[in-house]
């Protein structure tokens, strides 16, 4: 397995994985919308995407969005998306993608990397905790959806 930082040349490999990720979260399939969204993120340098490959097959990805910590006066990253194709799960791909994220953040002297997941996503939560991430109850998170 190889993990690479994605650029626009990998758009067609990322798109079906991103679409499948959205469907996992009960969104309607929309390949063209997924392609456009990822293309814009890459073109505008608004996210960092790592792609896991098994030979010529794209098997997983993670997407980070940069943010900042005013208190820490450093950049932080939100690990917004992590997905591994169902046929390739339980093979260490998710772990490898997260490790790549940690390395990327450490190399950039980031203040933090954070993520959110569904409360019932036990498999993912178990992995995150094994990777040294901790559930934070330090702050309440408020949301207003539009």
TrEMBL record:
GO terms for molecular function: acyltransferase activity. InterPro entries: Acyl_CoA_acyltransferase, GNAT_dom. It is an enzyme of class 2 (transferase). The keyword Acyltransferase applies. It comes from the Bacteria. Residues 8-146 form the N-acetyltransferase domain. Keywords: Acyltransferase, Transferase. CDD domains: NAT_SF. Its EC number is 2.3.-.-. It holds the Pfam family Acetyltransf_1. This is GNAT family N-acetyltransferase. It comes from Robertmurraya beringensis.
